[in-house]
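Task: complex structure prediction.
Instruction: return structure tokens for all chains below.
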Amino acid sequence: MTAKIIKSKPFVEEIRAEIEKEIENLRTKNLPPKLSVVLVGEDPGSVWYAESKAKLGQKIGVEVEIHRLAEDSPEDDIVSLVEGLNKDSGVHGILVELPLPGSLDKTRVTNAVSPEKDVDGVTATNRGYVLGGQEELALVPATPLACIELIERAGFELKGTRVTLVGRGDTVGRPLAMLLIKRHATLTVCHTRTVDLAAECRRAEILVAAAGFRSLIKKEMVSPGTAVIDVGVNETEDGGFVGDVDFEAVKEVAAAITPVPGGVGSLTTTLLMRNVLKAMQLQGLP
Amino acid sequence: MTAKIIKSKPFVEEIRAEIEKEIENLRTKNLPPKLSVVLVGEDPGSVWYAESKAKLGQKIGVEVEIHRLAEDSPEDDIVSLVEGLNKDSGVHGILVELPLPGSLDKTRVTNAVSPEKDVDGVTATNRGYVLGGQEELALVPATPLACIELIERAGFELKGTRVTLVGRGDTVGRPLAMLLIKRHATLTVCHTRTVDLAAECRRAEILVAAAGFRSLIKKEMVSPGTAVIDVGVNETEDGGFVGDVDFEAVKEVAAAITPVPGGVGSLTTTLLMRNVLKAMQLQGLP
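Output:
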């Protein structure tokens, strides 16, 4: 049996329809949502991500302003820019494109963003709300949110389900672990030090791969009936992208699988825009 | 074979010796460590905990000042008191005894504490550092720390080890999950919605019970060779305390087991005092 391919496109459209209604409503109240993106240096990935946010913003009615700073900008200048954006009541969301050029203190720069404008969910405060299970107070990072939306909108049950999550990074694995536990999954977290990764993956009813290693999850690691969510984005030699899952082989055995591209990653920019609207709520707007 | 009983007493003594040296050093620099405890109402558990902190403080040289407020104190008064303590450079650690009387907003009161004085590790900021794996920046709550110290000082390896954690509360389970992942455990988190709790427990090389249910972990749920860490503190009819593990039965099968009392709980006050010293470091002292 070949797995059902879970593309995110229909869910992207669903969620956009939900937020476009809200954006229209805010515009009639003279509160056009605005996102400020801080882009330091010329990292091609970061430039591409920033521009794709601007493009989507234009499409759905969120103003996206990109602040481009030179690679060698002093840390204090970046922090000052962020602090100015914090104070600007016309700016509702702020994000600093990562990775930052090498010498900059990522913790200091990201924590300079006011928590209620931190639409990337990278400040200690928002992470703390996620740890505490207080998602209603938090801006949750878009990628873990995208995993949850894909799983739930595709009709998979998390309550009481055995989920194996491969990966424990600070932007996806760790916050996603908290979201999964809150939704009552029985969760196993694996990583590079896990002794028998294949066995842990085979136990999973839902397997989430968020390790950042191309073809880490092979056919023999997946049981029939498992739903496989691939969060990986790994560049190939020809400039394309593949996930953490050996897609062609695993789709022969899994019950369902998300593609890369066209899966988790394609949902994130839309969920980032939804975070701008949530940020406005947290700021008491309208 | 009967399990090795892992009492915390020798580790309590080890850690006290470590911190007493540091306290002496601080006193010679005219920086006597000081902890302020805010105690609202007359909850007997809270009164007992506050007094046991004062007692230990007196023994090892940390000044513990208890601020007693009436049960019906307005929330604003409590927050004002905390804000005053934040500003007082002679106070290095602040904690608000929980639970607070019913009508008070726990999130608001606990987050009023300045993160670098939050020795209970309950502010969103400290929780966020724990989520992000940035323990060096964090004040980590004493109970999850006590589990880690007990496991490591008793000589058990966490790296690559299959750990099953039963419980996902915001003060123990969730932060402890992050600490275990950081120490390279392959971690499974179980809770009330887990379908086959016995099977998940039997898989564990180390089993941590932090659910808050008396006798939840029974003999048939534990495999020979497993080390069992009991975080539960459940009151009995006669006013005593028992853990989450059916101690008498489980000790017949486990390789090692921590008692209640005399296990995890007996380490926490000492680790709280260590947090006062870490708080001073975070404040740039000496």
